[in-house]
Amino acid sequence: MVYNKKAKEFYSQELASLREQGLYKEERYIHSPQASSIEVEFPAGTEPKPVINMCANNYLGLSSHPQVLEAAHKGLEERGYGMSSVRFICGTQDIHRELENKLSQFLGTEDTILFSSCMDANAAVFEAILTNEDIIICDRLNHASIIDGVRLASAQQDSYKHMDMAHLEKKLEMHQDKRFRVIATDGVFSMDGDIAPLDKICQLAEKWDAMVMVDDSHSTGFIGKTGRGTHEHWGVMGRIDLITTTLGKALGGASGGCISGRKELIEMYRQRGRPYLFSNAVPPVIITAASRVIDVLSQTTERRDKLEENTKYFREKMTEAGFDIRPGVHPIVPIMLYDAKLAQGMAKDLFTEGVYVVGFFFPVVPKGQARIRVQLSAGHEKEQLDKAISAFIKVGKKYDILHKTKEEVIAKYGM
Asked: Is the dihedral of CA 31, 34, 35, 40 positive or negative?
């Protein structure tokens, strides 16, 4: 037997080492629907308690919204539970194409293709259209799914310093001998909440004859004046060649993703995108719910506007309280703590105070960059935000981190 005593001992020691370093990830069990307030069992085996949820991707509060649930029920009743097939065999219903058309209209693109997740979309986005004659030039802080997509492609690879346009231009100039150049970036970087400068990226792409690919998972539905995403935020709609995004965050929060962009490229994914060709179609229940979400977002910006107000309020109050927060306007709010054990300890104490957050640390973020990542929602009411801010201040005082510099926090906790 391959899995012998030696292997068992090795992996047991690896897990013990993760616990000792404060890097072990513990799952919490939610006993209620996803919402701004949830019931959570933590530690495992304890009685679930109500807490304010400050770490979900439920940006617009639509995961359990009555209209979304109604549409999901309709999809289940009228079109069944699952497709039991891939799209090109017998897995495509008319509602799949209807949603793809709605997404194209919403995002301002020529065509859209659905995937089981945005991770699957990113697994296909390069591999299906590029060869070893081409090159992908990535922002160095791109999401893991983009990195995995690059690894799957036969194209050559290079990178540029995070949001450093001078460095990107040097790389574009360096690779003028390649057939195609693709600049790949997150629209919003999920750990820091910073927004890629797509206006400058598009200028460089046009100057040096490159394509632009953007993963807008943490933007679609709420960034930009009408929630179209980072390309709307920067005024470059129609200039982005490929957008990957998810239905699993602001757009209802279930699962599913897509690639949206130039029609010829989208058709190539229908012909050669392996995650599309060899994965079951997105279930009807998700299609009908997501379609309703797009309808709602196309009619009003009310939820997007409330999220913007919540974000501004929380960021201002937490900054005044003395927390080290990465500046920005995104509802991702990194509370910088730098030490993994400190992040874990504060998250546990905040849970005791009725606020559900999670500590992030290596390998999710670089070593020495541990944090608690707060994510705000349009579902949060001001009373909930005030309670959460009070809890953060109480716990922050306990650990003596308020109004402290990065160097002071690191010196105190001996990272």
From this structure: positive
Low-confidence ranges of the chain (pLDDT < 50): none
From 65, 178, 218, 341, active-site residue: 218
Marked catalytic residue, from 65, 178, 233, 249? 249
Q: Tokens standing for 309?
A: 């107000």
pLDDT value, residue 24: 83
In angstroms, the CA 244 to CA 129 distance is: 15
Taking a C-beta distance cutoff of 8 angstroms, is the pair 125, 268 a contact? no
Helix (H, G, I), strand (E, B) or coil at 89: helix
| Residue 74: predicted pLDDT | 96
Which residue out of 116, 190, 219, 279 is catalytically annotated?
Answer: 190
Question: How many angstroms separate the CA atoms of 410 and 406, rounded?
Answer: 6
Backbone angles phi, psi at 38, to 5 degrees: -135, 165
| CA–CA gap between residue 375 and residue 57 (Å, rounded) | 7
Q: Nearest-CA neighbor of 221 among 149, 303, 139? A: 303
Q: What is the pLDDT of residues 207-222, one digit of tens each?
A: 999 999 999 999 999 9
DSSP, residue by residue, 228-261: --HHHHTT-TT--SEEEEESSSSS-SSS-EEEEE
CATH no. for 66-299: 3.40.640.10
Angle between helices 406-413 and 340-352 (to 10 degrees): 90
Neighbours of 18 (CB within 10 A): 12
Angle between helices 302-321 and 382-399 (to 10 degrees): 30
249 belongs to the catalytic site: yes
CATH placement of domain 22-53+302-413: 3.90.1150.10
Helices (H) and strands (E) in the chain, counts: 15, 14
* Domain coordinates in residue numbering, the chain: 22-53+302-413, 66-299
Res 415: pLDDT: 57
Angular region, 286: left φ>0, alpha ψ -120 to 50, beta rest: alpha
Q: Please confirm, yes or no, whether 190 is among the known catalytic residues.
A: yes
Residues β-bridged to residue 242: 213, 261
Rounded CA-CA distance 235/233 in Å is: 6
Burial zone of 281 (CB within 10 Å; 0-12 exposed, 13-18 middle, 19+ buried): buried
- The CB-based long-range contact list for 311-319 (8 Å cut-off, 24+ gap) reads 311/376, 313/382, 313/385, 314/374, 314/376, 314/385, 314/388, 314/389, 317/385, 317/389, 318/389, 318/392
